[in-house]
Structures
1.
Amino acid sequence: MCLGDALTVMRSQDDTSCDLIYLDPPFMTQRVQATQAGAVFDDRWPGGFREYLAFLRPRLEQARRLLAQSGSLYLHLDWRTVHYVKCLADEIFGIENFLNEIVWSYRTGGRSDRWFARKHDTLLLYAKQAGRHVFHVQRNGSFRTDGLLYDDTGRPYKKTRKGRLYFHPDGPACTDVWEIPFLSTVSCERTGYPAQKPEALLERIIRTSTDPGQLVADFFCGSGTTLAVAKRLGRRYFGCDVSHEAVTVTRQRLRSVPACKRPAAD
Ligand SMILES: C[S@@+](CC[C@H](N)C(=O)[O-])C[C@H]1O[C@@H](n2cnc3c(N)ncnc32)[C@H](O)[C@@H]1O
């Protein structure tokens, strides 16, 4: 974990050294993002999209260079920039390596009476090389129970033309719409750092796209959510941020996460 601009830090890393890169850059909110204690990072872009995309381009190029052949990039954005950045990222990663547009849906926060409440972020998922990428199906929630039959052992199934369709005991496979609550104002995860993401979001990403022991990197690490979850799940981790506050919060947070003593596989 170090203090520094993502570009400088990325340039100092070896080719193909990262198994997963999660990037959660400023969202072009055109505001200074602050805690009650004061300014933390400046998200104003007087040059608009041109300036924002010029900032992201070299960092995405570096992300591609740093990814292992089986690696993946999750690029976290929202409605303001995602459509512009998608075109840029396709150019850099190749549209054939684009795997998913993940909608992270949440319900908390304000509402407007002038447009539909904006209650999702978008994560663009790219493989360095589609087909060679690590991908472990995640399961969450429960199946519809209407019309289910039960076999002699009590296992639920559905009758189809091909025979019995049994349901996976761990629930349905996750789709590209993720219902994960935003951190509540009183969540014990909260560090006070602006734009902090929930650990459950990073847990799904890390479990899907890495194996234990692999290297997870986050070059806009903020409060250190990615690194803390990676440590808890027994992955190696590396990150940086340009803000002193971020580095302080992340270091403190990492100290409180016990090292994982899990076996070699999840
Ligand atoms: C959206 S926040 C990341 C929040 C983080 N995912 C979390 O859960 O706490 C974006 C971060 O990018 C950092 N940042 C902005 N410009 C940067 C740059 N050029 N290099 C590295 N970090 C930068 C900001 O300081 C801020 O912490």
Note: The CA atoms of residues 105 and 179 lie 5 Å apart.
2.
Amino acid sequence: MKDHPMSNIKIDEARLWDSLMTHAKIGGTPDGGICRQALTDEDRAGRDLFCQWCRDAGLEISIDKVGNIFAIRPGLDNTLDPVAFGSHLDTQPTGGKFDGILGVLGGLEVMRALNDANYQTRRPLLVASWTNEEGGRFPPAMLASGVYSGKFSLDYANDLTDSEGVRFGDALKDIGYVGEETVGERTFHSYLELHVEQGPVLEDESTEIGVVNGVQGMSWHKLTVKGRESHAGTTPMPSRLDAMAAANRIISVCYEQANAIVDAKATIGIIEAQPASPNVIPHTVNFTVDLRHPQDTVQQGLVRKMLDATAIESEIGFTISHEEVFRSPALHFDQGCIDIVRKVATDLGYSHRDIVSGAGHDAVYVSDVCPTGMIFVPCEDGISHNSIESITPAQARAGVEILLGAAIRLAE
Ligand SMILES: [Zn+2]
């Protein structure tokens, strides 16, 4: 680490990569991905190995009642709150080797590098592995960091069920990760999360580090358009009340807005017609709309335009119901954490740019309770939530070097 007072602290790229590849075997799929959904046997094995490595590194482990794992490296003054960093070890059913895992095992590498250099920070350091970030098996996503920050209650989490009817609380007990610690009782001085970008911006610009300023605002909408079912061959176009045609006009407005406004995004992920016959004009169309933008005012503008379009269809004679099923306002991370990440990237000579996260992360909820920042590294072709998700050993090391440098500064 050039130009840094702690220049004798070295991230071991080979050790970091070896840990990532060894851990990736747990739930590893033939196509190179990972299937390690929350609270499965694979999740348990992944947690066990991480805890073993933490103990080997001399870290003290504490687990809370929602299964979050905290591994602590003491500082010179252990009355002070720790500088925390981490992410998640669970994956999507067809997940990759780095989403979340880089942040956890990168955090462990920070601890190992400090051990090698025999360096003691003033504040303790803590690496966190949050339970059920992906939410694939037990929606919603970012569940346990949400319980930690007070967004959800522990009872709410425990009573969630998967598609087979298994309770979250029972599954957590079955894998042996119901800890003693009261959720949210442990406070952090600050929190950092290293993560793959999961998008193409850094790679397209050949930039090594993303200084994450925040997370874009997003909302999910469920719409139902009801018209009139009739014969596809005999009903003239002007006399139809075609629910699909109305849905199409509303959807077109969403796409037009998103294409016209910089950084806006619109996604129609689900669309279902009834009665679903090729020669019957559908009487009902259900669809979802996901609208995003880094600024809340613009994001809300997208929602308003969509609702204006539904109002026009209602006037024509369609019956339309709309429900906002999820909303997450735009978030700006702590300016101090953002500035430290940028400064460390500059000092270490990495190319970097400010970036807004397109996806949610545990850092979103943790930022409710302590100063928080995030570091992105590029991933190949911007692909994530996919078995082919890929980064290079050098990209992994770069991200962990920034994490180390930022953590040391925060801990002094
Ligand atoms: Zn993730």
Note: The chain has two domains: 13-215+330-411, 217-328.
